[in-house]
Specification:
Two copies of one chain form a homodimer. Chain A has six helices and 14 strands. Chain A is α/β, with parallel strands linked by helices. In chain A, the strands form four sheets. An eight-stranded mixed sheet of chain A has the order 5-4-1-6-9-10-12-13, sandwiched between helices. Chain A has a two-stranded antiparallel sheet with strand order 2-3. A two-stranded antiparallel ribbon of chain A has the order 7-8. In chain A, strand 12 and strand 13 form a beta hairpin.
């Protein structure tokens, strides 16, 4: 810990290209409770989002990291908000959205949650069981509708038709940039320390990044954020 | 790490009360996949099971720890088998059951899994969704039916009617001991470092343990295992 702080102190400081920017980053999975013991979740580990928070902070941004349950330690110097469900995540994002200049939604938020959450552990019975699910509020779409100058970056984790789904997401969600990956590709996606992403832009072009560490991917994404903010202020 | 090994080396060695015993311990949650991204799981973190594996090893047992996904490091010197789903867990347990003298089932195995696991990420649609679930194989019950001299210890994690459910489990599963707790009680259950359990015995009596660290609970349970093995060999 001390070694880390000393190293950080003597590391060449990056140019503070995001100084003065308020950046909100969401990370990790959400958990949707069926009862006090059982839940739905997904394979997101939060590594991508925590790396983005670190990269944004290194460029001088004022960072709020809103995270579902992970085992990661938040970067020092960022405001950390821990949430559990998709509904909690929505509330936490809406609380800080108005003051934000950039929102990066890297969390893997549940699309569905159980219609009923039981207060006591559901006892198993013989036979089958249908769990009735309903849609959660689409956070990216909500932000896209409400945005008032904020730069909006979304993620698309797919296992097929990546380009098609990413372009559709860019348009229907009113996002400025979509970071898409095929999570079933070796070296990409959940859990690992590397990722292979493609950046999709509003004007229809896209940029493929090679296999990179999640740290390097984060730095590349933050550079794009810097560029998009510059273009905007022209 | 080195400090730990040195400490261990010089620690007073416990009496090897379980020397020569082959003990299988299951731990953690299971994950039941809906698709490559989404799954069902539960709040078990594996702490209780890993503490039991350590306690059994400290008493000289030959320990196999079969664990669902957790963030814990298995104790040194135990055979470690990592599994994901309830079906994987069943296979792993059956592989070692015949040679075991004691099986302690502390894992929180899913009771239900989706009838269909999709090969590609399910795309969300407008409207509700019913997920069709079917029962997984009841591992404790299966072991209870097949047991041939093995001592069988089960766990019951409940949020209400703990005694009633535990006694029922003891009888219907043909277990020798049930360790029951109310996971909604402060200081007991998933995630924390302490537990409050009650031990239920075949002859109908039970023993309440106070709030203890999971390490201490584990040592108390292993003492009971030693006693039950002694009784059996009379």
């Amino acid at each position: 810990k001390i070694v880390e702080l000393v190293k950080e102190h003597f590391a060449p400081k990056k140019e503070q290209l995001l100084g003065g920017e308020k950046i909100v980053i969401t990370a990790g999975p959400t958990r949707e409770n069926i009862d006090p013991v059982r839940f739905f979740s997904n394979r997101s580990t939060g590594k991508m989002g925590y790396a983005l928070a670190q990269a944004a902070k290194d460029l001088g941004a004022d960072v709020t990291l809103i995270s579902g349950p992970t085992n990661l330690t938040p970067p020092t110097g960022v405001t950390f908000v821990e949430v559990e469900s998709a509904a909690n995540m929505l509330d936490a994002v809406m609380n800080v959205f108005n003051d934000a200049s950039v929102v990066i939604k890297s969390a893997a938020v549940a699309d569905y949650h159980p219609k009923v959450t039981f207060g006591q552990k559901m006892k198993k019975k013989d036979g089958d069981l249908a769990i009735e699910m309903e849609r959660t509020t689409d956070i990216l779409k909500t932000l896209g509708q409400k945005k008032d100058g904020q730069l909006l970056v979304g993620f698309a984790a797919e296992t097929e038709h990546v380009e098609e789904y990413a372009m559709k997401k860019l348009q229907t969600k009113n996002a400025d940039l979509i970071v898409a990956n095929n999570v079933s590709t070796e070296g990409a996606g959940f859990g690992g320390d590397t990722n292979i992403v493609t950046l999709f832009y509003k004007d229809g072009h896209h940029q493929d990044l090679p296999l990179l560490s999640k740290k390097d991917v984060s730095e590349r994404i933050m550079n794009e954020v810097v560029n998009l903010l510059k273009e905007r202020s022209k």
